[in-house]
Write a structure and sequence with these properties.
Elements: H1 11-34, H2 51-73, H3 79-99, H4 104-121, H5 124-129
Helix pairs in contact: 1-2, 1-4, 2-3, 3-4
Length: about 140
């Protein structure tokens, strides 16, 4: 990935990159909550009795979000597709976590953020910025 961009970054892509960075931060917070390092204020978090595995998955997702945010920031043409896929993966991991004995209240902010990123990716302005034709 090159550090210089040939085309200017639209405001919508900047907002999306910031949201992806926030999603990465949320992934770190959830990983630390599954490790019982950070407290959980909105409910309980548990991952099928294997909280260490849940922490690993959330930490991995946080790394992926950080990479995706960098791709968006530098206007990497493949970043849009990658962020769509990662946001779907994020929502799937939220669902698996809820079914794995975490409360919906504990993961609701994460679910809302993942859905917001996915929906924002699908707006015509963001699609146009990455050269994806509107459906």
């Amino acid at each position: 990935m090159s550090m210089t961009s040939a085309r200017p970054r639209p405001a919508g892509v900047t907002i999306l990159a910031v949201l992806a960075g926030i999603a990465g931060f949320i992934g770190v917070v959830h990983a630390l909550q599954f490790l019982h390092i950070l407290p959980v204020f909105l409910g309980t978090v548990a991952f099928y009795g294997y909280d260490l595995f849940g922490a690993f998955l959330w930490a991995l997702l946080a790394i992926i979000w950080t990479w995706a945010a960098a791709g968006l920031w530098y206007m990497n043409p493949q970043a849009w597709r990658f962020v769509v896929a990662v946001s779907v993966l994020h929502l799937i991991l939220d669902g698996i976590s809820v079914f794995g004995d975490s409360t919906l209240q504990a993961l609701l902010p994460s679910i809302l953020l993942g859905a917001l990123v996915l929906l924002y990716c699908l707006t015509p302005g963001v699609r146009r910025a990455f050269g994806v034709p509107a459906s």
